Amino acid sequence: MTTTPKKKIDFIDLKAQQARIRKQLDKRISAVLDHGSYILGPEVQELENLLARYVCTKHCISCGNGTDALLMALMAYDVKPGDAIFAPSFTFVATAEVVALTGATPVFVDIDPKTYNIDPASLEKAIENFLRKKTGLRARGIIPVDLFGQPADYDAIMAVARRHNMFVLEDAAQGFGAVYKGKKTCVFGDIAATSFFPAKPLGCYGDGGAIFTNDDGVAEKLKSIRVHGQGTDKYDNIRIGINGRLDSLQAAVVLVKMEIFDEELISRNRIANRYSTLLGKSVVTPYIDPHSQSCWAQYSVLTEDRTSVLAKLKARSIPTAIYYPKPLHLQDAFVYLGYKKGDFPITERIAERIFSLPMHPYLDEETQDYIVGGIKEST
Ligand SMILES: *Cc1c(COP(=O)(O)O)cnc(C)c1O
User: What is the Å distance from ligand 1's center to 175 Cα?
Assistant: First the structure.
């Protein structure tokens, strides 16, 4: 076992993917340069049609990024001050940030210790506690997250949501391409949002995102919100909206990547399974529910003494990342909500022990063996 890899290890290797699709990218990008319709051009419509068909929803409304996708979805459901929206504390900040941006109040929920997704039993308890407290706020919605690419437990979550007459917004920013009980993500709950940030499983070369719904009225509203709340034309404004449009160049990139996306999902699963087999019990490997397939946005493991393990991996030139070192209920940005350490013990325990390994469809076995060897020597 040497302490230097044969070649530089990328955490996510977007270059290998680009080399594979470069010709098609050049062609698609040239077409945009030729027609000159840079925003909401023909590629955007083509992508929306393709993605709606791919996940099996009636409508796909693309937008500028995954955060706007979440925000626009909340705006379409008229989320406003006085509303409470429940979300896991263990997620990327955008999930709860958009709630605060609408003036509504985020209410955090603990996670399942195996899947790291929102725990339906904790959700039910959080809603009941919230209702007992008589805050004057209205329990309006829930944002489950498909964390690391594994779908949340939608059957259990929807049962809770229906019982309390709440809507569900699926945060599938990391989950595009994953499967829950035979269905692709972005169809769960009442509305779903995803991201095409370059490092996501389906990424573009900049910012991009999309919203999915089966509701014609909501789809129309989203198209209006996306362009400053436009009515019959650009200078007729019937509601408050945002500039949430997607660039044609980014849509062109996603269209090319969609051609190889299913193959990449197979590779991601093969690589993830190989990691889990080779790592054995040296770390706690990911648990994927038997009724789910992950799209492996991240391959995340648990270890005690993370600081020392990560230092040893760094010395072997093995890149790692921590998603997420600080739960949202402990972030300064949310201090006004009044949470304290100890409020979500599972989230806090996982946040102290978790880290992610290099994960992308082009990770070759030799490099993976080197990474696994490094972990076994470091734990
Ligand atoms: C990446 C991400 C977002 C935000 O997507 P952007 O395109 O970066 O705005 C939202 N939620 C989760 C869980 C994410 O991982």
Answer: 10
* Mean per-residue pLDDT, 136-155: 98
- Do 109 and 131 meet the contact criterion of CB atoms below 8 Å apart? no
pLDDT in tens, 173-226: 999 999 999 999 999 999 999 999 999 999 999 999 999 999 999 999 999 999
The residue nearest atom 7 of ligand 1, judged by CA position, is 66
Q: Per-residue pLDDT tens for 34-89?
A: 999 999 999 999 999 999 999 999 999 999 999 999 999 999 999 999 999 999 99
> According to the model, what pLDDT value does residue 48 have?
98
The Cα-based distances of 21 to 144, 259, 261, 262 in angstroms read 33, 9, 11, 14
Mean pLDDT of 359-379: 97
Q: Express each pLDDT in 251-289 by its tens digit.
A: 999 999 999 999 999 999 999 999 999 999 999 999 999
371 vs 379: CA distance, rounded Å: 12
Ligand 1 binding residues, C-beta < 6 A: 65-67, 91-92, 94-95, 145, 171, 173-174, 195, 197, 207, 209
Task: Please identify, by atom number, the ligand 1 atom nearest to the C-alpha of residue 94.
Answer: 10
**Which of 60, 298, 97, 91 has its CA nearest to residue 192?**
60
Atom of ligand 1 nearest to the CA of 70: 10
What are the strands, taking DSSP E only, across the chain?
Answer: 59-63, 83-88, 105-109, 138-142, 167-171, 179-180, 183-184, 191-195, 209-213, 292-293, 299-302, 354-357
Ligand 1: which of 91, 98, 150, 174 to mutate, judged by most atoms within 8 Å of the beta carbon?
174
